[in-house]
Amino acid sequence: MTEKMTEKDNGGMLHMKGISASPGVAIGRVFVLDRRNRRIFKTYIAEHEVESEVQRLRTAVQKAGEQIQAMLRSMPDELREHIAILETHQLMLKDSMILDKSIDMIQRKMVNAEWALDHSLNHVRRLFGHIQDTYIRERIHDVEDVVARIQDILSGTQGIPMEQHTNPVVVVAHDLSPADTIQLNRKNVLAFVTEMGSRTSHTAIIARSLGIPAVVAVAGVTKYVFTGEDIVVDGITGDIFIRPDEDIIAHYTDKQACYIQHRQAMLLQSHLPAVTADGFSVSVQANIELADELDVAIASGAEGVGLLRTEFLYVGRNDLPSEDELFQAYFECVKRMSPKPVTIRTLDVGGDKFLSSLPVSPQTNPALGLRAIRLCLKEIDLFFTQLRAIYRVSAFGKLRILFPLISGCSEIQQIKVHLNSVKEQLRAEGIPFDEDVKLGVMIEVPTAVMMADLLAKEVDFFSIGTNDLIQYSMAIDRVNEHVAHLYDPLHPGILRMIHRSAEAGRLQGIQVGMCGEMAGEPAYTPIMVGMGLDEISMNADSIPKVKHIIRRCNAGLCRELVNRLLTACTSQEAREILEDFLGRYLPDERQLTHPYLCDAARH
Ligand code: PEP
Ligand code: MG
Question: Does residue 202 have an active-site annotation?
Fold first, then answer.
């Protein structure tokens, strides 16, 4: 989180920087929405008031439920995929950690309902604070949102007073909950700027689905801006300008027009194949973490699912999914993508994702511990259930299996023994399956790179996982913000590893792809092309942009770029070589490629 000011808050222009959460450019007036001023006072109640206080809380909870129900009914079509957020809020209203705990507090400590709620919320906050998985940890904001709604009802305060604004505004807030975001009159909102949040927060996800520019994690912004002041928001780079001067307004007016034009052109062409000017073709596919992302992926022009992170079928529950459940989920995915291929990755938990259904004893370094394929090879039933489900689905559509965290040939040999057993079982049971399902390994451990020539003889495809490859080869914990600035896909050592893996695959005649975050950064697309990758898989949002860049590339020139990059001594040198290439050959695509270059540590 950075806060940069070019001028003091003296009425002049103020430049601040946050994290770009949803792309686009907005120029308009500010509306400051600061709900932190909600003051919760502690009041003691008399014994005879306890029952009515409990009832007051129950009535507020019921009203909150009715409000959420009304929001669900009036949900605009574009937001239908986010219905689950509001449904979760409804469930939370019934959660014993909030409601029962608060009632207990009122009864035992004889305090007012608002205070009791606050106390329960703090308890839940502490519990969430220990969760390692960022996505789940951030769901605390949903709990906070539900509690805020009940407290508003208890105190008679209204929700967001946005409807009074007839002209569109840029909403600047300490934090915006997903429900706030849905509630805001979207015609009236030009952009969001918040002090809190991250790219994975629901608010950011909703802003992206609505196509509203958003910048999050702008430290202290609500202190520096007032409602009614002018602001420029660059959701592409994360820059904001409060009280912008004429030059800035002129610059961003151009940038905005250019962005809109680009976006329209890209979306129109997102279903065209990604083929370079000189005929090199790349299959651009989607990374899927939740089943409901499939529609967006298809609409964005995905040519398949290059990485189905199956963990979503296991998290948030106390038991393990059955073979039939997995079969159904994979079948749905394969059917909806058909005839495009789906690459199903076997379970990758144990690094920064943990299952309550499969407790493992605490490990000092979980990222280096019993994670991914290591866990599956230890818990054979867990592995077999997945493999059986995957093979059963193979009879109905095009799928491939991808194995994570492979460090050498012995794991793939062990895997094959298990695969043969699974096939034999299925044959004996008369269950049809595709005998020739393609097998692939993630290249994300340095020894896999060193062994790539031999691994390539064992499997049908490679998928380079740069997120972990960078973590394991540069010794940088990918979830540790203190070393995040060192995390750099342009480190010459990383570029050489990608090159070495791609060459090993090419020499053996197998498909080589990439599914780490690096694959979805348009600035790096010429590198992917130059490395000769057959397919790249990324979040759906990046697909139209990356396809667009590929169509503007010349594969011959990209290969020259890679040759130059392989001579670089430092990341800085590599960055300069890439910048030079982009400036020379893709000057019109600057707004797509530039931000990523400026912010290599953003991943
Ligand atoms: C990777 O490591 O690059 C990858 C795609 O896998 P994950 O991010 O799920 O670990
Ligand atoms: Mg990985």
Answer: yes
